[in-house]
Amino acid sequence: MLIKNCLLIDGADIFEEKKDIRIEDGKIAEVSDCLEAAAGEEIVDAGGALVTPGIVEASCQLGVNSQVHRFEENDSEDVSPIAPELRAYDALNFEDEGFEMALRAGVTSVVAGPGNGNLIGGSCTAVKTAGGSRKERIIMPEAAYRFVLASGPRKKFGSKGKAPQTRLASAAMIRNILFKAREYARKEKAGEHQEFNLELSALARVFDGMPVQMVAMKYNDMETAVRIGEEFGLNYVLVEAYDAPIVIKDLARKDLRFVIGPLYGTAFSVEEKGRELDLGAVLEKEGVHAAISTGHPQLNLEILQTQLILMTDRGLSRKEAIKGVTAYPAQYLGLSSVGTLEPGKDADLVIWDGDILQYDGGVKSVFINGKCVLS
User: Fold this and answer.
1) Together in a domain, 273 and 193
2) What is the pLDDT of residue 266?
3) Where would you tag: which of 43, 167, 258, 309 has the fewest CB atoms within 10 A of its CB?
4) Which CATH number does the domain housing residue 218 bear?
């Protein structure tokens, strides 16, 4: 397939340049000027329209917590505050109407996992929003863990008189299970005899580089997350991260990775005080590149474009806005096959009708693995 006359943003080095894209076997094969079609090659004329990578949602519950049937189809939280053996993959519901919402928003890949009610609710799965069989749509069955240092677990379990009831307990309980998992992993690698433990065996993968989403909103919770991440050598990214500007100044660090959002809407708690639409612009001025999330269904994926527009209205550059929903989330969560339109990557792309960062713009066509799934 040859897609001609693209005003291309590839998520890497090309930004709003006229290019053609050749797709072979579901992958980007070539990106160049004025490519000639081969005999019998299918041609799609983008007509000068803006073309971007498919949007990557880094932190959501798509297919795990239904947008509409939130009680009947909510598999996002469990009764134990720490349950690393659970897998979002085992609850993934491809009939969730959120997948259609995702396509309408130009979202082609998501990292979906547990909610914010457990300290460790299990592992997240990475999945394409359409295209092929259900099995073919799975990018990684277990792509990341989700640790929560926000108030959700304290409210959920504290109201029942159970731990954790305080920030101290949240941090201590996470550290405790990590100590056990690290020792379990050490013995496993050393060939020492030990009784099999599903929880520790599952969690031990974080010591081999499996990404960890550290959910924290306030600066004190975020700094605790950083301490835990550094103590155990975790490959972590800070999620929601409303007080990110405070943290990078407190810690004098600009190498931290953030997935910010949802930002659109009203903050209802002190914990969300830093939930402001200028957060991306503030971080950009500091030289920090943030991925941008809706946290679906916290914020409907179809409002993703509105959130981006409002963020650029408040100072975020066009380039950072688009990379924030394509290249950065893929990079931070280790999804090496998506996020940019470089040769060798999956041919997941969106042809826009107008400008992605204008209210009158919208999705015209969506391609996943080189096949049109929405037009």
Assistant:
1) yes
2) 85
3) 43
4) 3.20.20.140
